[in-house]
Amino acid sequence: MNILIVGTGYVGTTTGLIFCEMGHKVTGLDLDDHKIRSLQEGNLYFYEPGLAELLKKHIQAQNIAFTNHTEKAIKENDVIFLCVGTPKGTDGNADLTFVRKAAESIGQNINTYKVIVTKSTVPVGTAELVTGWIQSKQTAQIPFDVVSNPEFLREGSALQDALNPDRIVIGTESEAARTIMKELYKNFQCPIVQTNPKASEMIKYASNSFLALKISYINELSRLCDELGINVNDVSQGIGLDERIGPQFLRAGMGYGGSCFPKDVNALIQIANEKGRPLTILERVVKVNEEQPLYFINKIKDALGGELNNKTIAVLGLAFKANTDDTRESPSITLIDRLLEEQANIKVHDPIVKLWPHQCRTVEKTISGTDAIVICTDWEEYKRINWGKLKPLMKQPYIFDGRNMLEKDQMENLGFYYIGIANY
Q1: Cα–Cα distance between 54 and 328 in angstroms, integer?
Q2: Is the pLDDT of residue 90 over 90?
Q3: From residue 103, how far is each of 42, 84, 93, 96, 323 by CA, in Å?
Q4: Between vectors from CA 115 to CA 109 and to CA 118, what angle results, nearest 5°?
Q5: How far is CA 173 from its chain centroid?
Q6: Is 376 a catalytic residue?
């Protein structure tokens, strides 16, 4: 099929390249000239393992092209995926401005029957809105169908998630559109959930919110484990082996971040409040997530004598998780802001993200002369460090492991004061 991807960000670019892998011809449409030029030249402008190589492969094979010519792109493609941003609005709901603009452009330029697919994360009822926006700009009654087909990609492993999905959700009332979507995904070996658009849109929000709930649950439990002297990692393992629960997202840390969980949980809370059915459990999820970096800050303050002014602290990791350059809602940023409020001197390192002024290029330079190290992102690079070799560079050998990624006994044997999150 000829497929148009509207929006060439993280989701759009990944989606387009996976369809190329499945043998389809793809066009990426974006009004951001910088993004288009970068992609046309085969340069991925964000970090996602394995995706840059796939981009070069399909550009060379002429399976994918990128353009900012809206009319031509819409008219020449059969299936149109909406992969534009839906940022958090001022009222807590997803802002559908970009979705609406894309839908209206389709209405202005539609020339034959097309299937319009919302891949962006959108509130329940958006498929109906997209239908209305397209119709409002049509000058002739050309038929089309709108389908909800949410993405379930994890930043840092998007390529593998897209190639090997747990499930594919197709939300449509149209048999013709359903047939086209099933043909599009025929090479994928996973369950296909066939439902209506509203249920499909809810599945996405409910999935992300449940995963956020698991993270906040183990983080709040870790505080109790701290009081009781229990290793929360043992607890995570013990409950995660229950097949009804599973081990994923039960690793205590500094909280969730990124472009999806914070926005999606808040949006679902807002939807529920508007309908008079508050989701109080999710309200607590958000509160726990906001508290977790501050809880860790207090552990740092207590260990360093109650005051952080004039202490020099090395922060390792800016991205909200490893294998991505996304710093949106990153617990690391929250922690740095609070350390600065406490008048600490900050030195920062991240192997991919270059965000902080005068950021150190190496871990060695970052920790040299510091009173403490705080690990905020679980980059594999930090696990492989020869810590014994670096210890003499520090003024005081404190390590605060906000991801519980190092072995406590090993670090203490090297002479470090090691403090994790209920990691005994």
Answers
A1: 25
A2: no
A3: 28, 11, 19, 10, 33
A4: 95
A5: 30
A6: no
Specify the 3-state DSSP secondary structure of 79: strand
Which one of the listed residues 83, 225, 260, 376 is annotated catalytic?
260
Going by C-alpha positions, the residue among 51, 43, 48, 116 that lies closest to residue 82 is 116
Of 338, 348, 256, which is closest to residue 300 (Cα–Cα)? 338
The amino acid present at 46, given as its one-letter code, is F
Q: Could you read off the pLDDT of 231-262 as tens digits, one per residue?
A: 999 999 999 999 999 999 999 999 999 989 99
pLDDT digits (tens, 9 = 90+) for 98-110: 999 999 999 999 9
Tell me, what's the pLDDT at 8?
A: 96
pTM score, whole prediction: 0.93
Q: Are 113 and 144 spatial neighbours (Cβ–Cβ below 8 Å)?
A: yes
pLDDT of the residue at 92: 80
CA distance 177 to 232: 48
Q: Which residues contact 81 (CB under 8 A, 6 or more apart)?
A: 3, 4, 5, 6, 12, 15, 16, 117, 119, 149
8 A C-beta contact, residue 318 and residue 375: no
pLDDT tens by residue, 345-374: 999 999 999 998 889 999 999 999 999 999
The answer to whether 117 and 45 have CB atoms below 8 angstroms apart is: no
Task: Provide φ and ψ at 29, rounded to 5°.
Answer: -115, 130
Cβ–Cβ < 8 Å for 256, 262: yes
